[in-house]
Each structure stands twice: as C-alpha cells, then as structure tokens.
Amino acid sequence: MEEKLMLSLLQKNARMKITDLAAALDESKDNVIQKLTELEQKKVICGYHTIVNWDLTNTEIVTALIQVNASPEREYGYDRIASHIYKFDEVDTMYLLSGSFEFVCIVKGKTMQEVAHFVASKLACVDGVTGTSTYFVLKQYKNNGVVLIEDEDGKNDRLVVTP
C-alpha cells in the first residue's frame, strides 16, 4: 500500500470515505482500515481537522504569532522550555526555528487583551524565556493550502504557464 499517497489524500480531504480511499489506493477496505489504525497508533496521523474561516461567522477569535526568545538548558536544550509553553491551552501551534528567535507560537484568544494577558502573565514568566514579540493577525488569506478569500474579480490571478 502506498502510505504517502494515502496520507496525501487524507490531508486534502479528511472526510474521504474509506471505500473511496480503498478504491484510490487499489486496496481492500479492511487493509485501509488496518493501515489507518496503525498510522494513528504510531502518531503519524495525529488527528482529522476542519479548516474554518472564522471571519465569515459571528465568532470573535484573535490570532497572534508570538516570537519567543529563550536560553537553552543544559542537557535539555530547548525541549523542556517548549514543553512548558505548548501545554498552555492558548497555544495552538508551536515551532522551534533557526534564525533570530527560538520559537514561534500561534496563539488564539477571544480578544487582543486576552492574548496580551497570556503573554505577560504566563508566557513571559516561563523559566528560560528571555523575550517575546507579538504580532496580531489582521486578515487571513490562506490556511493549510486553502484560499479563504475570493479574488476581486472572482478569478484566480495565477499566470498561465505553457511549455
């Protein structure tokens, strides 16, 4: 079974029916179910998610990208500091990066004040954190490969490429 193809198909459409997935992979339904279970147990598949364009709802959600500077710990590097940070409910996503800061966190809250309070009272107080910079998202254009807005003329402005 082509594992990469299965993962790619599911990443594009997590609601794909098992029967359709089996047909696309030219496998039996039972083999697909067994492989999915195996990939879930190994944490290769970590969940099935829906992309929501919250701007089109009456729900107030504030998203912020927070750069975090930190000093590595002997024997642990950045892992223990990261563990303290990503366990906060406010932290949606977190990455260790190369460059001028160590981590970037994507934080969600109901208001800018709520996010600011999280940064000041929780994040900045974590041992090893030496500084933060917060950037509030003003508009979301694309999320996980999905374009969330329509172009002004309703068409795609990509250039046509011909051989």
TrEMBL record:
Fetch the SUPFAM superfamilies from UniProt: Dimeric alpha+beta barrel, Winged helix' DNA-binding domain
Domain Transcription regulator AsnC/Lrp ligand binding as annotated: residue spans:
67-140
The record's Gene3D superfamilies line, in alphabetical order, gives: 3.30.70.920, Winged helix-like DNA-binding domain superfamily/Winged helix DNA-binding domain
Query: Which Pfam family name is an example for this entry?
Result: AsnC_trans_reg
What protein name applies here? Lrp/AsnC family transcriptional regulator
